[in-house]
Design goal:
6-stranded antiparallel sheet; 9-stranded antiparallel sheet; rod-shaped; mainly beta; single chain; 4 domains
């Protein structure tokens, strides 16, 4: 009789345990990626009052089963339904990720790795991808800097917003394509001014320029000349080509790196055509002093001003053989209403280092000059900077109208060389790349007197276009966990990949709260590297989170049966108590 009493107590405790599990499931019905649990019962033990006996072959008596009395119930196991996928809940947050299959995200507190199905992530102040509820770092694989591919080794924190990733480096344009119809009856092509063809391009710093070509017919049928005439910056200002214009301001300061040679605003040093002269203007553009009578002669010219140790001179050079026929000290206005002349050395000092200016030169060797940094000679250092387009002839087959060659070159390519003037011996490099320009896309046909020739950066496959410096405008996460950044210059960059972990017995993981699990001896260990989520057929979805897999209908049903089981076990106790009461009443 006492056995039944204690069996009832065991039944109450076991059903209470099941009710606790059900209550926890229902409480977490809206917990992200929560996995419900279930309880299984097992009998506790049995008291054997008589062992089983076998049949007696001699007497023919049959065997007798053992006589055992059970002593109650216990909870056999509490299983986590960890492989049951929860429904998807849309959030719109690109860093909210739902994972499918038997995979887990790997997160770390810096000391140990934990595992979770909760993909609610954010980017912290240092650029790391972190778990929202705990701040733990999301682990994954970085990018090999040499191959720019994912390097699947030991997992590491994913820093997707590092300073290196916030921008995408610019690239200078190094290829271009000219295409369209060239109509021999086009009035622009047949005019002295020619037809303008513009090519947009980028330098190595990401600044945009426009190279302006003039295309016009020659005296020979089917032949057209092409000449690069101007280089314009993004604001439409002309970058000097075979002739320079400098504006002078009033500041009395050293000439340092990238500092223009400046005196009074409105004063300029100019080269136009084949005549070189220096003129001084006021701020309204009125010429005060004109030095056009100076005798400078050369077959071609680049006019420069030499500044050294507060001394100024005018020099004119052609290649390495130019002649200088004039030399004088320069005087400019000191700003008085009636122009009075002050020696230029009173307004300028030579700095400790000087850098050159960007120009393009169409004429031969491209003579370059720099302001010397110190020294004793009031002179310029010159060096050749390579060649640009010095005029070329496009030839077409007059029967087919198809492109034939450029100056006998059948490839249809020509190279534009744009350079930055740099001092002799300096470490500065050009910001421009040589641009291979393909002209073979032009066809000569009758198009009602209209030519449609255009120039675009890049070749027909989009290679060599160049680009500006790109600022990050977005981050996307692919199905395989690859993280890409997009930039406003049209480029994308692989930042890393989210690693996952899976286990032979995922139900053997141990819960740690905050939707975290850790590996146990019965779950299998984590190798520290992880696996690609797609290796086991899983994938990641962004902008959604996995909901709890708690099934309320099932939980309420289990609650009812648990309640009835609890009531039944309580009746065992009350009935046993009644029997004991009757037993004690026998002595009356």
């Amino acid at each position: 009789m006492m056995r039944s009493l204690y069996s009832g107590v065991a039944g109450l405790k076991t059903h209470q345990t099941k009710m606790d599990v059900i209550g926890n499931n229902i409480a977490n019905v809206n917990t992200t990626a929560f996995k419900s649990s279930s309880v299984t019962f097992a009998d506790l033990m049995s008291q054997t009052t008589q062992s089983a006996s076998g049949a007696n072959a001699q007497t023919g008596v049959g065997g007798v089963n053992a006589r055992q009395i059970g002593l109650g119930v216990k909870s056999g196991a509490i299983n986590v339904n960890i492989t049951s996928q929860g429904s998807a809940q849309s959030t719109g947050n690109p860093f909210d990720i739902m994972i499918t299959g038997d995979n887990f995200f790997v997160v770390s507190d810096g000391l140990a790795n934990y595992f979770t199905r909760d993909g609610s992530f954010y980017v912290d102040g240092v650029g790391n991808l972190c778990m929202t509820s705990t701040g733990y770092n999301v682990m994954g694989w970085g990018v090999d800097p040499e191959t720019m591919a994912i390097k699947q080794d030991t997992v590491q924190a994913l820093r997707i917003m590092s300073s290196d990733n916030l921008t995408y480096p610019p690239e200078a344009t190094y290829r271009g394509t000219v295409s369209g119809i060239l109509d021999k009856n086009d009035t622009d092509v047949n005019s002295e001014a020619g037809k303008t063809v513009n090519l947009n391009l980028y330098d190595a710093l990401g600044y945009e320029y426009t190279a302006r070509f003039i295309l016009k017919s020659t005296d020979n049928t089917g032949e057209y000349s092409v000449e690069l005439t101007k280089l314009l910056d993004a604001k439409g200002n002309e970058v000097s080509i075979s002739g320079a214009t400098e504006l002078f301001g009033q500041d009395n300061k050293p000439i340092d790196d990238e500092t223009p040679v400046t005196f009074a605003s409105g004063y300029k040093w100019a080269t136009t055509g084949t005549d070189s002269h220096l003129e001084l203007q006021d701020t309204n553009g009125t010429t005060i002093v004109d030095f056009s009578k100076l005798d400078f002669t050369s077959t071609d010219e680049t006019a420069v001003a030499a500044v050294n140790k507060a001394y100024a001179a005018i020099a004119k050079a052609y290649g390495y053989e130019g002649n200088v026929d004039g030399f004088l000290n320069l005087y400019i206005s000191d700003g008085a209403s009636t122009p009075t002349l002050t020696k230029i050395q009173d307004l300028i000092e030579a700095g400790t280092s000087n850098s050159g200016k960007t120009i393009a030169d169409l004429d031969g060797d491209g003579v370059l000059g720099t302001v010397p940094a110190g020294g004793t000679d009031p002179s310029w250092d010159f060096k050749a900077a390579g060649r640009y387009i010095n005029g070329m002839i496009l030839k077409f087959d007059t029967d087919t109208g198809l492109f034939h060659d450029i100056n006998g070159n059948l490839t249809g390519d020509t190279t534009i060389n744009l350079s930055k003037i740099i001092p002799e011996g300096a470490t500065n490099t050009s910001n421009f790349s040589d641009i291979k320009l393909n002209w073979a896309g032009i066809s000569m046909f009758n198009n009602n007197g209209t030519s449609t020739v255009t120039a675009t950066y890049g070749d027909k496959d989009g290679i060599g276009t160049g680009r500006k410096l790109g600022d990050m405008i977005g981050v996307s996460i692919q199905r395989d966990g690859m993280i890409y950044a997009s930039y406003d210059n049209g480029m994308t960059k692989l930042l890393g990949q989210i690693a996952t972990a899976n286990f032979p017995n995922a139900s053997g993981l141990e819960k740690h709260g905050d939707n975290l699990y850790s590996s146990t001896m019965n779950s299998g260990s984590f190798d520290g590297i992880g696996v690609d989520v797609t290796a086991s057929g899983g994938y990641m979805s962004t902008g959604v989170l996995e909901m709890s897999n708690v099934d309320l209908s099932r939980e309420f049903t289990e609650m009812i049966t648990t309640q009835r089981g609890f009531q039944a076990n309580s009746r065992i106790i009350t009935v046993s108590d009644t029997l004991l009461e009757e037993l004690t009443n026998l002595k009356r």
